[in-house]
Design a protein that fits this description.
By secondary structure, this protein is α/β, with parallel strands linked by helices. Helices cover about 40% and strands about 20% of the residues. Helix 10 crosses helix 11. The chain is globular, with a radius of gyration of 19 Å. It has two domains: about 130 residues, ATPase, nucleotide binding domain (Nucleotidyltransferase, domain 5, 2-Layer Sandwich), CATH 3.30.420; about 170 residues, 2-Layer Sandwich (Nucleotidyltransferase, domain 5), CATH 3.30.420.40. The protein has a five-stranded mixed sheet with strand order 9-8-7-10-11, with helices on both faces. Strands 3-6-12 form a three-stranded mixed sheet, with helices on both faces. A two-stranded antiparallel sheet has the order 1-2. It is built from 13 helices and twelve strands.
């Protein structure tokens, strides 16, 4: 899995037996600087010539292939011991209004180079059934945490999404920015790839006038089901707001972006059918102490990471891809009707053989 944060390829080795999941190994393999830059530019300006698209398809596929091979080497497994790879690919454009969603990193290369059956292209079947195609994570959160009722799970990657687990059904939707805007701003103004532990944001103050304007983004007022990405929430989106507030320091801007993530998550939680009794956080945002502290300050129920429930916060989305592959190989539909708005549940993905 590589998400909207573009940190690199998250690779998880998962043992699935008797419908139970066990994480055997997990590692993140960063993209090269040049590949990450190209993918970031494509998020902000989604125009590309076909030759460059083909080149990126191949390069991302090789990054996924290398991640697979290195994880197996580090964990002392061989390709012969692996049933399948589930590959989400790298999303470069998500347009449910079309409807179409494009992930690159062609699975044919992954299957042939690793000699392992590869399952991929998970979003399009849901879109063909009139769904948004994303987020897929809530269905997996139901699998992992479904025995914990009245709980909300928030994945804070480049974009944040909420899963609500209750006794009737699982709901899920994207709330808006997660770490993505903060990461881009750190690269441009602090010479670092992200705000480690939220320490930089802690040095600034939230600018309430700027935050109020950011919160006027129409997406935040849309009802679920809804999904978004860095094709909307990027520094090009942010730039006009900053031009209207030229005297705000970079520390205060970063602190305000941190608060924007908090506010939009809380706003999403307030639209749920009933208040959750607990909030579990996964993804990179689980490491942002400022973000976690601010969330807890606004919520009357406990805010923890998924580690308190025995699941590594960074590994969940990569684990999801293994689970999706397993579900596809048994032709099991994924319950997404209440998450993506699809007219029916779908068997997700296609299979490429070695």
């Amino acid at each position: 899995m590589s998400g909207t944060s573009l940190d690199g390829v998250d690779a998880a080795l998962v043992n699935i037996q008797n419908d139970q999941l066990e994480l055997k190994a997990f590692q993140t393999f960063p993209y090269t600087h040049s590949l990450k830059k190209q993918l970031q530019q494509l998020n902000q300006t989604p125009h590309i010539d076909l030759k460059t698209l083909c080149d990126l398809e191949y390069r991302v596929a090789m990054a996924f292939t290398n991640a697979t091979q290195l994880l197996l080497k580090h964990s002392d497994y061989t390709s012969e011991e692996i049933t399948a790879i589930g590959s989400h690919g790298q999303t470069i454009y998500h347009a449910p209004d079309v409807p179409m969603s494009l992930q690159i990193g062609h699975p044919a290369f992954i299957a042939k180079k690793t000699a392992i059956t590869t399952v991929a292209d998970f979003r399009i079947d849901d879109m063909a059934n009139n769904g948004q195609g994303a987020p897929l994570a809530p269905a997996f959160h139901q699998k992992l945490f479904g025995n914990i009722v009245n709980t909300a799970v928030v994945n804070i990657g480049g974009i944040s999404n909420i899963t609500f687990l209750d006794r009737q059904k699982t709901l899920g939707f994207d709330t808006g920015p997660g770490n993505g805007l903060m990461d881009e701003f750190c690269e441009q103004h602090f010479n670092c790839t992200y705000d480690e532990n939220g320490e930089l944001a802690q040095t600034g103050q939230v600018n309430m006038a700027l935050l109020s304007e950011l919160m006027q983004e129409p997406y935040f007022g849309l009802p679920a089901p809804k999904t978004t990405g860095k094709d909307l929430f990027n520094c090009d989106w942010l730039s006009p707001f900053l031009k209207r507030h030229p005297n705000v320091s970079k520390e205060d801007i970063l602190s305000t972006l941190n608060q924007l993530t908090v506010e939009t998550i809380v706003q999403g939680l307030n639209t749920l059918p009933s208040p959750p009794e607990r909030l579990l956080i996964c993804g990179g945002g689980a490491e942002n102490n400022t973000l976690m502290t601010r969330l807890q300050a606004q919520l009357p129920y406990p805010v923890d990471t998924t580690k308190t429930s025995g699941v590594e916060p960074h590994a969940i989305e990569a684990m999801m891809c293994a689970w999706l592959a397993d579900q596809r190989l048994t032709n099991t539909p994924i319950a997404l009707e209440h998450i993506t708005g699809a007219t029916k549940d779908s068997v997700l993905g296609a299979v490429w053989h070695p």
